[in-house]
Write a structure and sequence with these properties.
single chain; 294 residues; mainly alpha; MetI-like fold; 13 helices; 78% helix; globular
């Protein structure tokens, strides 16, 4: 009996180094993959930042090298000569309006779908799901015709309304999952206390679903800030062009200024990067929580 116990202990001692070595290899592979994706994500941002303080000639001859001299005049040119400040303000206006409209409409729609059962509710939920599956760029021509007929082309308000409509399907699905996670007894208790439907939504549902609301607002802000196709199709007046359209000013058939172009791109990237860094924990936790709620 003692000999068998001794053999088992010897076998376990022989297996420990193998297990620790396998764990080390798995951990090394895991961190290597994470480091690879981190470098792939950060490299374009860092390269854009370095290129924004290089001359056009230096960018063309040695694109991956560090800047030999810091050309801060690229930012001065991007801000003063091209009128990018006005485009910046236009993007802020469109993004702000779209965020508020999207949050308001999506919250009410998600609450109705999550709390009330009526004829056609399942079909309505299917329509929102289809809205996510269909590529929005495939509807470019019909949307252009509709916007022209409604006289919403060349209008920042019209562009904000379009962005709101595009973001509603995913926003409704995210908020619906959060509202389903809120017990129905909370609503019933509020009604017993004499709270109206609107007061219940405003005082109870909104505070409890705040992580989901923050998530859809950030996703909507990033989309509106970076959207290019519909902005260039619907906005023809230079005074109303958004930031992404203004960046095209630096590239033309007979003119290019890559230094100022990268400076303008850096100015366009900074707000979304800062916004996501501040609220990244909220976005990730909200999406993961909403994915498992029934």
């Amino acid at each position: 009996m003692n000999s068998e116990i001794f053999k088992n202990k010897v076998i376990k001692l022989e297996q420990r180094p193998k297990r620790s070595f396998s764990k080390f290899i798995i951990g090394l592979l895991r961190w290597s993959i994470l480091l690879f994706f981190a470098v792939m994500t950060a490299f374009p941002l860092i390269w854009t930042l370095f290129s924004s303080v290089k001359s056009s000639q230096e960018i063309l001859t040695s694109a991956l090298s560090l800047p030999k001299k810091l050309h801060w005049e690229n930012y001065v040119y991007a801000l003063k000569v091209t009128g990018i400040v006005q485009s910046y303000l236009n993007s802020i206006i469109v993004t702000t309006i779209s965020i508020l409209l999207n949050a308001y409409v999506s919250l009410l729609a998600a609450y109705v779908i999550a709390r009330f059962r009526f004829r056609g509710s399942a079909f309505l939920m299917t329509l929102f799901s289809i809205g996510i599956l269909i590529p929005i760029n495939s509807a470019l021509l019909p949307i252009k015709i509709i916007m022209d007929n409604l006289r919403l082309s060349n209008s920042l308000i019209g562009l904000a309304i379009l962005y709101t409509a595009i973001g509603i399907p995913i926003s409704v699905l995210i908020l619906r999952s959060f509202i389903l996670g809120i017990p129905v007894q909370v609503d019933e208790a509020a009604r017993i206390d004499g709270a109206s439907l609107w007061r219940t939504v405003w005082k109870i549902i909104i505070p409890m679903a705040r992580p989901g609301i923050v998530t859809i607002m950030i996703l909507q802000a990033i989309y509106c800030w970076n959207e290019f196709l519909y902005a260039i199709i619907l906005i023809a007046l230079p005074v109303k062009r958004t930031l992404q359209i203004a960046i095209r000013f630096f590239l033309g058939q007979f003119f290019f200024d890559y230094g100022a172009l990268f400076a303008a791109m850096t100015l366009a990237i900074i707000p979304t990067v800062v916004l996501f860094i501040i609220f990244q924990n909220s976005v990730v936790s909200s999406l993961s929580m909403g994915a498992v709620k029934q």
